[in-house]
Design brief:
The chain is built from 13 helices and ten strands. With about 325 residues, it is an alpha+beta fold. Strands 1-2-7-4 form a four-stranded antiparallel β-sheet, sandwiched between helices. Strand 8 and strand 9 form a beta hairpin. It is globular and about 65 Å long. The N and C termini lie far apart (about 65 Å). Pathway: tRNA modification; tRNA-queuosine biosynthesis. Monomer. Pfam families: Fer4_16 (PF13484), QueG_DUF1730 (PF08331). It is an enzyme of class 1 (oxidoreductase).
Length: about 325
Amino acid sequence: MNSTAEKYSQLIKSKAKSFGFQNCGISKADFLEEDAKPLEKWLKNNFHGEMKYMENYFDKRLDPRLLVEGSKSVISLSYNYFPKEKISTIENFKISKYAYAEDYHEVIKEILRELVSELQEEIGEFGFRVFVDSAPVLERSWAKKSGIGWVGKNANLITKQSGSFYFLAEIICDLELLPDHETTDHCGTCRKCIDACPTDAIVSEKIIDGSKCISYATIELKNEIPDYFKDKMDDWMFGCDVCQDVCPWNRFSVPNTQSRFNPNEALKNFKKGEWKELTQELFSEIFKKSPVKRTKFSGLKRNIEFLEKSSGKI
């Protein structure tokens, strides 16, 4: 590998750090050979439930060169979202920590574009696309390949230094860069996430039956929540953090320093009574810039009513 590739790789990593990214790793843009069969099997088992979009662009998911023409490198980045304060769950429904604040898609995409703009000032023009949990990109596979972390038994990417409360993002580009090496797996014999999952969604190590996951039921599912989830939702109205909360590596999580990820003030004061009275107008006001808007007012209302029924209060 030439010295230019090494120089550019170092520049990208130091620049990523200065823009607030926790980790940055690089992989060669190539076919993800070891992911092809597992992905096919996961889809065949219908573990994606009603997320039919997962069946689309199978080849592009496995080969970034089909997604971004002329691409040579995949730059994987992680961005901490662990909150400075947790929203109280006393007399309250629960919401996943990643949804406490502004929509991460928008926040991180903006940061990525600024990062690339600065890189192009120093390197010169290069072809690229940025991704934040969007488009058919197997984010964890690329992050694992680039050495950022390993895939835990709960299928989340975990790092020794900071656990798993972070977003993943990618810059797929036509720069020839120096690839990093994978790290080792440090889950050992621990089964805390498997044993703690309220719905038994972790069917085997690293394999999630998405159709049994509380996050899927409260966000992705568009129809009525199946009876399977009755008495298992543990008051989660949007998302679920159980498998991350019990992970021993998350004792190393530190609060993020991104002001746009500070908890939404409106969420701090809500209690179950207020949630039950939620109107479309109030939903639109509170969640205008939030990831919660993905489930829409009707979806969040459905989740709250299901939780109420499960507790026998309706």
